[in-house]
Amino acid sequence: MMLKYPFVTEKATMMLEGENKLQFIVERNATKQNIKRDLESAFGQEITGIRTMMTMKGEKKAIVKFADEKAAEEILSRLGIM
């Protein structure tokens, strides 16, 4: 699995509430297709877009947008974060 853990900060929470997006720290060699496949199989939600970037700590971060409006909140509640 390419996902390491969800990345939850104040800014990430604002993105969750306003844009239905979640942030995850992923393996450095993860591609957008790998991330999409892992997330869709793990949570059963359709993904409409993925952006990736490298953090200042050298980790790869993926910002994921879901098709369903409540999918991001549902996933975080399943993980026990919200």
Secondary structure: helix percent = 25-40%
CATH-defined fold name: Alpha-Beta Plaits
Q: Report the portion of residues in β strands.
A: 25-35%
> Would you tell me the structural class of the helices and strands?
alpha+beta
Structurally, how many domains make up the residues? 1
**Count of helix runs:** 3
Give the low-confidence spans.
none
Order of adjacent strands in the largest pleated sheet: 1-2-4-3
Question: If you had to describe this structure to a student in words, what would you say it looks like?
Answer:
One of its GO terms (molecular function) is rRNA binding. Keywords: Ribonucleoprotein, Ribosomal protein, RNA-binding, rRNA-binding. It holds the Pfam family Ribosomal_L23. Part of the 50S ribosomal subunit. Contacts protein L29. It is built from three helices and four strands. About 40% of the residues lie in helices and about 30% in strands. Strand 3 and strand 4 (about 60-65) form a beta hairpin. The protein has about 80 residues and is of the alpha+beta class. It is globular and about 30 Å long. The protein has a single domain, classed as Alpha-Beta Plaits. Strands 1-2-4-3 form a four-stranded antiparallel sheet.
Show the helix and strand layout.
Layout: E1 3-6, H1 10-19, E2 21-26, H2 32-43, E3 47-54, E4 60-66, H3 71-79
Subunit structure: Part of the 50S ribosomal subunit. Contacts protein L29.
GO molecular function: rRNA binding; structural constituent of ribosome
Keywords: Ribonucleoprotein, Ribosomal protein, RNA-binding, rRNA-binding
